[in-house]
Structure formats: C-alpha cells, structure tokens
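Much of what follows relies on a compact textual record of a protein's fold. A record is reproduced here so that you can trace the correspondence yourselves:

. . .
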Amino acid sequence: MTLQQFQRTYLITHSELMAVQIEYYNGETVWADTVTLKLKGRRLLSRQKWEFVPFALVFEKTIKFDFLDTFDNRIVSQPTLVRTESGYYLLLDPFDEGQPSERDNMVIASEFLYLLDEQGEKYQLN
C-alpha cells in the first residue's frame, strides 16, 4: 500500500490517540527501534461514508522520537505525515502545519512505516 492510498483511505486528522508503545533494541547501544502509535480514526467505506475504527501506525528503525506533552487531550487535530528522503515523518503537534520543522513537537521519524488495520493485518507503506 502506498502512503497516498493510506491517506485516501484512513484519516488521522481528528483521531483519538489510544496508546504509544516503544520497543527498544538492546545491542551494543539502546535505542527505540520500533514505535507503535495506536489510534481510533476514520476509514473510508464508500464515496462519502466513513466509519471510526482502531488501527496502528508502526514506525520501524526509528530515527527520531520526540514526544513532550501533558496528554490532557488525546485528540490528534492537525497531524502531518510525509515521506522524506530518509523515511517517514509524523508530527502530531506541528509548528508549521504541513512542513517538518526543528520546532515541531510530538514527532516520530523512521526508515519504515507499516499500517496495522483493524483486523491486525500489517501493510508496509511505501
């Protein structure tokens, strides 16, 4: 599945953040290898019909994980998900909407990105 197909089928705008899971790789150094973001968002059923479903975005080979929040609101209102030359970049609290910036908050960047759909099927986004 391409990133564009995902973005046409699933909406992360105004979704509910259910969980953030971090899996660490413990070799010679320790780093967050995989970050899973569990959301309850909308999936397109037909032309103008959407349904709320749980799904997850799995970021593998994490490049950046910068999450500073009070978590007083679990609604993701203005996320940006883009593909960059080094992989994938998701920001949940953008400084400048639609454009990655060093001033962004709640950022996950990784080399690989997967969708875990509501049935638990895993699809690589490319």
